[in-house]
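Just curious: can you write whichever protein you like plus the matching structure tokens?

***
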Amino acid sequence: MKPHILLVDDDASLLKLLSMRLSASGYQISCAESAEEALEVLSEKIDLLVTDLRMEGMDGMALFKQVQRLYPQLPVVIITAHGSIPEAVTATQQGVFGFLTKPIDRDQLMQNIEAALASTSRSEGEWRNNIISRSQTMEQLLQEAEQIAGSDVSVLITGASGSGKELLANAIHKASSRCKKPFIAINCGALPEQLLESELFGHSKGAFTGAVNKHEGLFQAANGGTLFLDEIGDMPTPLQVKLLRVLQERHIRPVGSTETIAVDVRVISATHRDLEQAMQDKSFREDLFYRLNVVNLHLPPLKDRPEDIPPLARYFVEQAALRHNPKVKSISSAALQVLAQASWPGNVRQLENIIEKVTALSNTPIISDTAIHRALANQEQVIANFNDARAEFEKRYLCKVLQITEGNVTQAAKIAGRNRTDFYKLLKKHALEASDYKSDE
């Protein structure tokens, strides 16, 4: 894919000249005639920003500071007709990659662009290429992920369903020294206990009815690499004991076998459940939690990072068009605004699902806001998964009894049929404060 460069200058003729020159050199070019317009274009995947320094309204340095705050990995080259050594020094000290003066020397411009793009490639590498984000929160999370990728510590990824936990786990694997070995994922809540144990640790021939052959488990298959245990909070308690033993001893014992097998596997786990609450409920072992949760990375829900919605939507349109409807070329700005204002309880997975449907059904090359409105209206009728529905019911119920009792926890607990301690735990789980419901009188 061609590197994508955004050019910003209020001189339309210079903008056109630079655009033609760089397009001829093999780059994908977008143009903006003001810093304000540039910030809108930056919701797309841009690899380099080249901006004029002196412009009406927001100038080049003010634009750079906004970019540094919103997209800290994006390199910036500043050009100006009023170049001076102090300005150049100040700009480079603050993190501007290059500083050029007009008239622009073609060779110098190309050298700056090539060096800036090379620096981005070195700093980001390929490990995070599948994660599309412009969010500062996500950028900080990815920086943490890269820092811990080089070690072998266990990582627990938390976040709502559909927020991209497996994608992050895979990125950590790619950034680690284990990247050339297997990355294997399994959903711990999708299989019954006996089958899950066999899948993880393997089984010997005749270990149980139907075990007609010896089976190598996923720990062996992932040897030297990474094993991703998704929805670890749904793992049956007896299996939690066996997993803890494997993590401590670095050996597995296949079902029905007396021999142990050494394994070298990094474990990354994930859950959308509140494991601290699960520990209090005795449904999740405390010792296993601390073994898995050496480092915790929390993925924010999509509604908390709306700036990621436009680039994600564009990417999903591009992918869906390739698979289902090649005549679809893009999505309208009005449609992107509708998407950015939606609540997305299903997170990135729900966004991808919506985009795939509207792309497959589109009769026009550009997806309209009307199509998005219609798809979102239909999506609201889809039933939520059990865990999300239960959590939503619990919170609404607690709010109701607190309203009835005007924040009196003793009375509220009595109505709910719970003791005060349990009731306080429920309030903490849902981040509710009884004092917020007390009468002002």
Notes: The chain is about 50% helix and 15% strand. The radius of gyration is 27 Å.
